[in-house]
Structures are given as structure tokens and as C-alpha cells.
Amino acid sequence: MNLTTAEEESSAQEIHIPADINWEMLDKSKFFVLGAALFSGVSGALYPAVLMKTRQQVCHSQGSCIRGAFTLVRHEGLRGLYRGFGTSLMGTIPARALYMTALEVTKSSVGSAAVGLGFTDAKASAAANAVGGLTAAMAAQLVWTPVDVVSQRLMVQGSSGIRCCNYVNGFDAFRKIVRADGVRGLYRGFGISILTYAPSNAVWWASYSVAQRMVWGGVGCYVCKKDGENGNAMKPDSKTVMAVQGVSAAIAGSVSALITMPLDTIKTRLQVLDGEDSNGKRGGPSIGQTVRNLVREGGWTACYRGLGPRCASMSMSATTMITTYEFLKRLSAKNHDGF
Length: 339
Description:
This protein is mainly α. 66% of the residues lie in helices and 5% in strands. Strands 1-2-4-3 form a four-stranded mixed sheet, with helices on one face.
């Protein structure tokens, strides 16, 4: 996403990228209603990859993700790949609304301030995207952490070697967690969630901004349409814009997944697995205990368990989410006249 109408030069040709739609240009009611519908569909399509990533992270031994998926489907049917999806979806809608609001408001404010301070469009865009992603992730974790704790416990239920209560559904899991640990139990791993998702989102949005400009500067000009036979100016059509956004998002997703994978593995184990204190009382393990257990089970490489599914999930998620998100913004723009 570009802060303003961007003009990139490559091989003495000028590419005019469509201007970004900022917060003030959006019809808010349309933005949130359409956003809830579109992102619910995207979340449903990507949920099986998230489930398999989560199960791999908490298992005590490493196995093939594909083999594990087939085993799960053979025993429970396709329904097994959607354990906890209802709970996740109910929490994702308000969390996503909070995320998008914080993202767009922060991007508009920081972007304008950066341009006012004399930053170039490229630097202002990268800074606005990074700060926007950081702020949005921190705000959304207020909702997402309890949803993660409940839905992830449902995801791993039945996995071999996992010490976890049996839950009938999301409400039953919520009730048992609160009864055992109080409201605090719903925010288990909140601190490390912030440490995981805040930098992850900052890295993702900044990488996305940089990757998008690199793609436009490298290969974008070769698939753009010329405005005139002899003119240097080139204006990409909507399909080209979406393709560049998708490729840039996939690159940013892979970079972010690789950098933050160890934190995500530790966070998932903190939220899902139970430990014991010196008196033998059940409770959440500490970060140190979680790291020691991981290293004892498989060395430091154990922190990267589920990296394949996470990279695939984040790349697919990033590609579909960003194209959906940009499409949503154009649908929700005031006086919008098409994509």
C-alpha cells in the first residue's frame, strides 16, 4: 500500500500506481460490514493450516505435517481440521475490526507526520506501515489472546502426549479455564503474544511496503499497459496491481514468519500446555521452563517446529488478506466508482 500516489522510475519509464485510500476516504459502516464477511471467508479457507501448525508446535516429537493432517481426517473427518473454528471466528470479527481501525488511523497520522518532516514517500510509507502494524497488533491482542487460548486448546485436543483438559466446545473451554485460573488464565501468554505479534506485524507491514516497491521497480513495468504508444508513462491495470500486491505480501509473510517463529512456538506452548510448580500444583509453565522443555526435546531447532506450515499459512494468509483488504478498501471508498 502506498502512502500517496507513487511514481517509480525503471528503465526511464514512469509507473503510476493508484493512490492509496486512507481512513478519511472510507465509508466506515460499509468497511466494517463487508470486512467481517470477506475476512470470515478467508479465515475459514486458511484455518486448517493454522490448526496443523499449532498441533506441530505443541507435540513432543516432530512428524510430517501432511501425514498428521491425513491421520486427523481419517479419524475425525474434515470436521477435525476445523476444531475451534467457531470460537476463533466469533473472536476474530471484533479483533479484526479493532486491528483495521488502529492500523488505518495510525498509518494516516504517522504518514502525514513523516511527510511533513521531510521524509521521502518511500521512507514515509515504510515508517507509517511499520508503526501502524505495531499499534494494530498491540490493540488487537486484547481480544485475540483470549480467543487464541480457547481455540488453540480445542485445536490440540486429542493429540498424543498433550496434557490438556477435555472440552466439549468453546464455551466449555472458556468456563473451565476461568474456573481453574480465573480471568488471568484467558490472558496466558499475553506478554509474549505482544512480543511476537507486535514486531511480526511491524516487520510484515514494513517488508510489504519495501517488497512492493522492489517488485514494481524490477518486473512490474514489464507487465504494465502503456498509456500511449510513444509515451514513457505506464499505468497498471487492476489485475496487475493485485498481482504485485499478492507477490509482495507473500514475500513479507515469509520474512516475518522466519524471524518470529521461535517466539510463536513458545507463545503457543505457553497458552496450550499445562505445567506444575514446586508443590505439584497444575498451572501455566514459565517462559524459561517452556524454552528448556523445547531444547530438551529437540535442541534449538525445536523452536522452529511447524515452520513449514507457518510459512505457508502466513504467505497464503498475507496474499489473500492483503488483496482482500485492498479490494475491501476500494469497495468501501466514498464515491467509489469501481476497483
